[in-house]
Design a protein that fits this description.
Layout lengths: L3 E9 L6 E7 L11 E3 L6 E4 L5 E3 L2 H6 L2 H17 L9
């Protein structure tokens, strides 16, 4: 799998405050655009890109309205995120 990473304006996760300055496309073929979905690698909150490519927390309604395959993909990524970026305060600290 070829993963493409794009630098974006420095921002922080609106849920946990983790600094974010890049986005990776798991399909390897896109750069972020306003409205695209993302996920915080630390707290696994579902996010969406704003017009300036900073991130905002998705609402429960927005998540519920996602197509099943998209919601399932985000859920699978959420389950893998702790293996990529362990949270502080856990067993690994």
């Amino acid at each position: 799998m070829d993963i493409r990473t794009t630098r974006m304006p420095a921002t922080s996760c609106p849920s946990c405050g983790y600094p974010l300055d890049a986005a990776s496309d798991i399909q390897g073929d896109a750069t972020p655009s306003p409205g695209d979905l993302s996920m915080c690698i630390r707290c696994t909150s579902f996010l969406t890109f704003k017009d300036d490519l900073t991130l905002r927390l998705m609402t429960l309604e927005e998540i519920a309205e996602l197509p099943d395959d998209t919601r399932n993909l985000l859920t699978r990524m959420r389950s893998r995120a702790p293996k990529i970026a362990p949270r502080s305060g856990g067993e690994d600290s």
